Amino acid sequence: MKSKKWIIFTIAFFVLVLLFLVLKGFTVKNIVIIGNKHLTEKEIRAVIAIKEGSSIIYPSSKTLYERLKKIAWIKDAIIRKDLNGTVTIYIKESSPVAIAIFNDKAYLIDYEAQVLEDFTQQIQVSENQKPLFLPLIKNIDPFKNRETLEEAVKLLNFIHNKGFVKPEEEIIISGSNPESLTLHINDFPIIVGKGDFETKFAKYLVVNSEIEKRGLKVQYIDLRFPDKVIVKPVQQDLKYE
């Protein structure tokens, strides 16, 4: 009986040693990164923490994915491992939709209202040399006032998707809360408030057309009320019921 147990133990030991040697032979020989535009290959390699010569089995693809998703710029990623030693990483980066300015700091914001990076230094250069290339979101804390920031980004996405603004127009959104969100198009304020953008801008198009026909000089337009649009001319109030 002892002899039989010893034989089983010996076989198991050699199987484990063989398995270890086989797995050790599966090493990373080449790392290919595809789809990165903003992030450098060096930055991505630093996050995944694998290099040529390390095991291709560990860490797992799931672990590598979780590491990549910690980078704000990475919206999604696919990891492929081949037994020939090649690890291929397909990157889908987020796209900036606006620049949030708060307390003298600037941040790139994506289409899901996520902060991509501190953009303070770059925006100073941009203001001195050429017009800003993205809409601005002003006076909304991108970290502590998430609800308002998310609503501002929804508004931006809506006006861009519906073609309410032209690429050359200056767009600024401001407001301390979702209910006070105000869209500035070339310095003209349109108080939009929270949600129901389809209905609000349908009314805006009608009212704005009437304003242009009459040649009115208007201070602002307020779209927040369900049964009316408030227009503030330079001298008096007009209400369109």
UniProtKB/TrEMBL annotation:
Q: Which GO biological-process labels does this protein carry? A: cell septum assembly
Q: What is the lineage of its organism?
A: Bacteria, Pseudomonadati, Nitrospirota, Thermodesulfovibrionia, Thermodesulfovibrionales
Name of a matching Pfam family: POTRA_1
Q: Which PROSITE patterns match?
A: POTRA
Q: What is its main location?
A: membrane
Q: Where in the cell is it found?
A: Membrane
> Which InterPro entries does the record match to this protein?
Cell_div_FtsQ/DivIB_C, FtsQ, POTRA, POTRA_FtsQ_type
Instruction: Give the species this sequence originates from.
Output: Thermodesulfovibrio aggregans
Q: Which Gene3D superfamilies match?
A: membrane protein fhac (3.10.20.310)
**Protein name per Swiss-Prot or TrEMBL:** Cell division protein FtsQ
An annotated GO cellular component: membrane
Q: Where is the POTRA domain?
A: 26-94
